[in-house]
Design goal:
five-stranded parallel beta sheet, Glutaredoxin, elongated, 526 residues, 17% strand, alpha/beta, 33% helix, five-stranded mixed beta sheet, Enolase-like, domain 1
């Protein structure tokens, strides 16, 4: 592996004259008050910021009470400053309760130095790295609580119709909930939190839960299972291509150390501590074909925008656990953007701000929603050329077209009102999935668009022959492929030539062949 990204930054000069600390706190959705500390480095008329996301409130109080006691002043390069930090104890009063907190504080200092160096140079991060930021796809991370239901998902999707989720699985999850989650079609990842044993975040290992989740949600990534439990390992063995890692990943070497070869990993910048460790890991993943998505740490200040900025540069089209503030609320504020989120990077420095949501963004058919190519007949447009190019290998550059002629329903998808049939919710999610894979999807509702039925020869013929029993009618490039029922995802995928598990093979980077190991490490067997 050739590590080149960090070298673009290593020799940037940075002048540090002084620094200050700001404490932040907020009560968050999981029921605890979050504390963080912002480091503000100053020099040559500029300020650079970074956020310490250590989880122990007492450690923030000690840091803030001590004040600016670290010897940081000097004229450095970023690499020289990092080597200087190697010699400092950033927890001088007492060791942290968790060793990973040293990485969190180190990241606050190095990210602040990067921000300051870029500001002093008058350059944005993307320019220095030779990368252009792109809109960031994100998921909302939720714990559904001790009496779990689908309601928290539905209330948030009412604000952003194509919102997707990462969920903490617990033993309280029953089959009815799993059926509802599967029908929603909006779960991208499941976090088992199985590698947090011995911490407050630990979740009891439940092999039966692992099995039921893997079966019910065949398209979801399965993050951080506890593979030290033989029964849990056996439950996921056949699904190991979907297993991804988060908490154990602090450097490139940790990817190779996992028991199953990683096809994708959650890269949380603050876990890595140093700029070198983070950017070397990005380079490693490119070299080994490991997909990357990003995550946050309940940042309250500039750390969130910085993590989103990195996602925009390195892995924008992935299930990034980097939702903007506001999705902790059951009904997000109207200004919170939907996914994908357009960021405005700082003109100089390290960081970005998201653009506010518009009214159109909240609608499932908007250009800023995940199912932006699923159209009702009244607002139909052809799929984008980018969608066609995504599948040029199987469709030779042509966009497959699926038309759905629905029976009379109250809305364009039938997913409305107090009681939604599971088949309609499942089918709506499957059409979103097709659209994300470049298929041009249009739906016509008999109650709202009868003229479309008359204009379509196959639809008119089906109604004349069988009446409403022919609906829903599915056409593939104008030819009937299904009548009288809503087909399953596997059928839709087969007709459209979309591999059902394509999303698990690649996020933004090519994945290794199953069991290949190689530079990515891990084993191919169970």
């Amino acid at each position: 592996m050739t590590a080149v990204t960090y070298e673009r930054l290593a020799e940037l000069p940075v002048v540090i004259e002084e620094y200050a600390l700001d404490g932040l706190s907020r009560r968050v959705s999981s029921g605890f008050r979050r504390f963080t500390t912002v480091f503000r480095l100053a020099g040559a008329g500029h300020r650079g910021v970074g956020e310490d996301v250590t989880y122990e409130a007492a450690e923030h109080r000690l840091l803030q009470r001590a004040g600016a006691v670290l010897p940081l002043a000097g004229t450095w390069t970023l690499d020289a400053f990092s080597r200087h930090l190697d010699q400092l104890d950033t927890f001088p009063d007492r060791p942290p309760a968790h060793e990973v907190s040293r990485a969190y504080r180190r990241w606050a200092l190095e990210s602040a130095a990067l921000d300051l160096a870029l500001r002093q140079a008058g350059r944005p991060l993307g320019e220095v790295l030779g990368r252009v930021p792109a809109p960031v796809r994100f998921v909302v991370s939720l714990n559904l609580g001790s009496a779990p239901t689908c309601a928290p998902l539905l209330s948030r999707r009412a604000a952003c119709g194509a919102l997707r989720f990462k969920l903490d699985a617990t033993s309280e999850w029953g089959d009815e909930l799993l059926e509802c989650l599967a029908a929603s079609g909006c779960v991208d990842a499941i976090d088992f939190k199985g590698v947090y044993q011995g911490t407050l975040s630990a979740v009891r290992t439940d092999a039966d839960l692992y099995r039921r989740v893997a079966e019910a949600l065949p398209d979801a990534w399965l993050e951080d299972p506890d593979l030290s439990d033989p029964a849990a390992r056996a439950a996921l063995c056949s699904q190991r291509h979907r297993v991804t890692w988060d908490a154990p990943i602090h450097c490139a070497g940790d990817i190779a150390a996992q028991p199953w070869a990683a096809r994708t990993v959650n890269v949380k910048p603050s876990r890595f501590g140093t700029l070198r460790a983070l950017f070397d890991t990005y380079d490693h993943c490119v070299a080994c074909g490991v997909g990357v998505y990003g995550g946050g740490q309940y940042e309250l200040g500039p750390g969130r925008g910085q993590a989103q900025h990195l996602a925009a540069l390195f892995h924008p089209d992935a299930p990034n656990d980097l939702a903007p503030a506001g999705f902790d609320d059951p009904v997000p504020p109207p200004e919170v953007p939907c996914s994908p989120m357009t960021l405005t990077p700082a003109p100089i420095g390290f960081g970005a701000q998201h653009e506010p949501r518009t009214r159109a963004d909240a609608q499932p058919g908007s250009a800023n929603s995940r199912n932006s190519r699923v159209r009702s007949g009244r607002h139909h447009r052809r799929a984008s050329s980018a969608g066609a190019a995504f599948h040029s290998d199987t469709r030779k550059g042509f966009v497959m077209k699926i038309e759905v002629f629905d029976p009379a329903m109250c809305c364009s998808t039938g997913v409305c009102g107090p009681s939604v049939p599971p088949a309609l919710a499942r089918f709506a999610g499957d059409l979103e999935w097709l659209a994300r894979h470049g298929v041009d999807v249009t739906r016509y509702n008999l109650a709202h668009e009868p003229q479309a039925f008359l204009a379509s020869g196959p639809a008119r013929a089906a109604l004349e022959e069988r009446g409403d029993e022919a609906l829903p009618l599915i056409l593939l490039d104008g030819e009937p492929v299904s009548t009288g029922r809503y087909p399953y995802r596997s059928e839709l995928a087969g007709w459209a030539g979309v591999p059902v598990l394509r999303r698990h093979v690649s996020l933004t980077m090519a994945a290794p062949a199953p069991g290949s190991g190689g530079c990515c490490g891990g084993g191919g067997g169970c």
